[in-house]
Specification:
This protein is of the alpha+beta class. It contains ten helices and ten strands. Helix 1 packs across helix 2 and helix 9 packs antiparallel against helix 10.
Length: 356
């Protein structure tokens, strides 16, 4: 159960639908074909996710005798089919094999588990030692990665626009964090609450990368999906928390549409009300807060955001202002009304969101 009374039937992908929609209309079949197939895969998985919430899904639990302070990882290979989970190819404690994709998925699951445990005392995604399952080599040239409510799934990319989706550890952390949100605040996946859902995943995905690399807030690149775009693409990543709207500007992908402030908030009925677009606003607020607070971002800024996500006061349909106010409140409760609270309040002010 979540703190707000139930599981939200969310199917979450790292590549936004508007990006694949644009690729699917390209005249070059080498670009449009994989994008169209990926959209078809996503539509099927989205429908399957909704059906799961109606008929119910088997509850996952850690095997008897499994310590909650250690990950329980299993990686499967779909063999370029859409059958989940696929063939088991690596399990907890086994040595790395010859498949780099399998090894990266295994390591990324572990990095995510470690950040949540070491920084916040959280025992896996559900805080009860939930096994972390992942499937690699999903579909033919599948241009996405997703959390389906039960496990991670990674495509290999088309090698024209996107490379292997296990390459960026923040992509793995992002998708698994949708699971954390599912088990805590359960933010509705539409409009501003949906953009907050996406932003929380970007925040902790970035923190997992920073934790893995031992970076301070000043040293981090604050990019989501760096290393995912193929060499032909003019861009550095899927999104930038430091400078939303600048991650790519490409003749095929178009220009990164994310706004950095409420002045440029995008009103749209697509992508569940622009959840992947308007997430740039709370993303930027976190970046501003984290760099102002300094040090390792997972220690103060991340702790504040985690307190709000898990505190039980965040409504499922929360607006940006609701989240902002709770971050200021959480900062004061943890650090007092001094510099930290002022830094968080100023960060929200800078993106045009009222926090008081």
């Amino acid at each position: 159960m979540t703190t707000n009374g139930g599981f939200q039937p969310v199917f979450c992908t790292i590549v936004p639908p508007h990006v694949l929609d644009r690729l699917a209309r390209h005249e070059d079949p080498a670009l449009s074909g994989p994008a169209r197939r990926s959209l078809e895969h996503d539509a099927y998985q989205r429908t399957k996710r909704r059906l799961t919430t109606v008929i119910g899904a088997p509850s996952a639990a850690a095997p008897a005798g499994t310590a909650a302070d250690r990950p329980h990882r299993t990686v499967y290979d779909a063999g370029h089919t859409q059958d989940l989970p696929g063939t088991k190819v690596r399990e907890e404690g086994s040595e790395p094999g010859s498949d780099a994709t399998v090894n990266r998925a295994y390591a990324g699951l572990g990095a995510t588990f470690e950040l949540y445990l070491k920084a916040y005392g959280r025992h896996s995604i559900d805080d009860h030692g939930l096994p972390l399952d992942a499937t690699v080599h999903f579909g033919e040239g599948y241009d996405n990665a997703f959390w389906n409510g039960e496990q991670m799934v990674f495509g290999d990319g088309d090698n024209e626009i996107f490379l292997d989706f296990t390459i960026p550890v923040d992509v793995i952390g992002h998708e698994l964090t949708h699971g954390v949100t599912q088990h805590t605040a359960n933010l509705t996946y539409f409009g501003q609450s949906g953009a907050l859902n996406e932003s929380v995943s970007d925040v902790f995905g970035s923190l997992i990368k920073q934790y893995t690399l031992g970076q301070t807030a000043a040293e981090a690149d604050w990019l989501i999906g760096a290393g995912l775009l193929a060499p032909r693409v003019t861009g550095t990543a899927l999104r930038s928390m430091k400078a939303p709207g600048t991650a790519y500007d490409d003749d095929v992908l178009g220009k990164d549409p994310q706004p950095a402030t409420m002045d440029d908030y995008v009103h749209t009925g697509r992508d569940n009300g622009g959840v992947h677009i308007n997430s740039g606003i709370p993303n930027h607020a976190f970046y501003l807060a984290a760099t102002a607070l300094g040090g390792h971002a997972w220690e103060k800024a991340g702790q504040i955001w985690y307190d709000v996500l898990t505190g039980g006061e965040l409504a499922e349909d929360a607006l940006f202002a609701d989240f902002a106010k709770l971050t200021v409140k959480a900062t004061r409760e943890r650090y007092g009304a001094g510099d930290e609270a002022q830094a968080v309040q100023k960060a929200w002010d800078q993106v045009g969101v009222r926090s008081l």
